[in-house]
């Protein structure tokens, strides 16, 4: 059953169980699988009023995201892994037992390992990828279709954008098509927006990170994954630049635990939507304990000093 809103200017999506219709100024514009009530008639407003597209809530807990990434094998090669973490099943064990809201996998790994109890953890399928071997201007072409990701049981899809690359026009065009296809299936699209290319002098410069956030919003990403440079005041500006697109930070290379936990706390406390982490968890000596500590910070807002006991 569909309920038509009284105020078409302010209500864009009316949600019901199953399939729902979208109304805009009184016109039915299509049917999509929707899960939340969306207010689209407001200009500005707090981040809590940002548009949530179909099924995004499945990737969140208490409004926050904590993703475990295991797509590094293609991008970086086996050098990031040890005897345990080289096995995708070990990573999936951490995702399942550590309370992560999603796991990020390349399609080949997802098809071979994402089965059984692991399906309790929502899957984000990475639709593009490259290796670090060729010395070319950065471009990461699509290697998996949205349709294939749907068949694997994906709850969302991810795609890396190299803003600043001389291949930017092709990247943007491909990403635009993916957004359209994914939204037709009701899947959120997460953009890794990483400045790259010979014209990008400093990918951690404040203005460059803010620009990357805005690019994600302008191109239709539902969430962007960005690097964090430690400048908390600039991060607040980054959030404003992203508008109604959600923002998670990347974990990056391995850091000392205390430094990593403080960084996560600062980002979440400032209004960030969470993090997508890989090496800082599964390269740790105690990945399961660290995951629980992270969850206390991300989902419950606890301070780093209040969760250190979980690591002992």
Polypeptide structure, described:
- By secondary structure, this protein is α/β, with parallel strands linked by helices.
- It folds into two domains: 11-43, no CATH class; 56-311, Aldolase class I (TIM Barrel).
- 32% of the residues lie in helices and 19% in strands.
- The chain is built from ten helices and twelve strands.
- The protein has helices spanning 72-75, 88-97, 107-113, 146-152, 168-184, 206-219, 232-242, 257-269, 279-282, 287-300; strands spanning 11-13, 19-24, 27-33, 38-39, 65-70, 102-105, 123-126, 154-161, 189-193, 223-226, 246-250, 274-277.
- Strands 5-6-7-8-9-10-11-12 form an eight-stranded parallel β-barrel, surrounded by seven helices.
- Helix 6 packs parallel to helix 7.
- The longest helix is centred in the middle third of the chain and has 17 residues, at 168-184.
């Amino acid at each position: 059953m569909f309920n038509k809103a009284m105020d078409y200017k302010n209500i864009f999506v009316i949600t019901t169980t199953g399939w729902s219709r979208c109304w805009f100024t009184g016109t039915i514009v299509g049917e999509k699988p929707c899960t939340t009530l969306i207010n689209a008639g407001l200009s500005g407003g707090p981040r809590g009023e940002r548009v949530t597209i179909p099924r995004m809530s499945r990737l969140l807990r208490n409004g926050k995201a904590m993703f475990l990434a295991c797509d590094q094998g293609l991008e970086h090669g086996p050098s990031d892994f040890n005897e345990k973490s080289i096995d995708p099943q070990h990573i999936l064990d951490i995702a399942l037992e550590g309370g992560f809201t999603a796991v990020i996998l390349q399609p080949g790994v997802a098809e071979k390992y994402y089965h059984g109890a692991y399906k309790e953890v929502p899957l984000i399928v990475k639709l593009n990828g490259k290796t670090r071997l060729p010395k070319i201007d950065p471009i990461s072409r699509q290697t998996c279709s949205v349709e294939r990701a749907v068949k694997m049981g994906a709850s969302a899809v991810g795609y890396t954008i190299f803003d600043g690359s001389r291949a930017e026009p092709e990247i943007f065009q491909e990403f635009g098509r993916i957004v359209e296809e994914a939204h037709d299936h009701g899947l959120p699209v997460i953009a890794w927006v990483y400045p790259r290319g010979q014209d990008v002098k400093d990918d951690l410069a404040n203005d460059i990170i803010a620009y990357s956030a805005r690019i994600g919003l302008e191109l239709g990403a539902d969430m962007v994954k960005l690097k964090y440079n430690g400048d908390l005041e600039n991060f607040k500006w980054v959030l404003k630049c992203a508008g109604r697109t959600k923002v998670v930070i990347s974990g990056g290379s391995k850091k000392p635990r205390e430094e990593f936990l403080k960084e996560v706390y600062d980002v979440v406390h400032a209004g960030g939507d969470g993090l997508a982490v890989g090496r800082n968890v599964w390269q740790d000596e105690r990945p399961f304990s660290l995951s629980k500590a992270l969850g206390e910070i991300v989902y419950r807002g606890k301070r780093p000093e209040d969760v250190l006991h979980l690591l002992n």
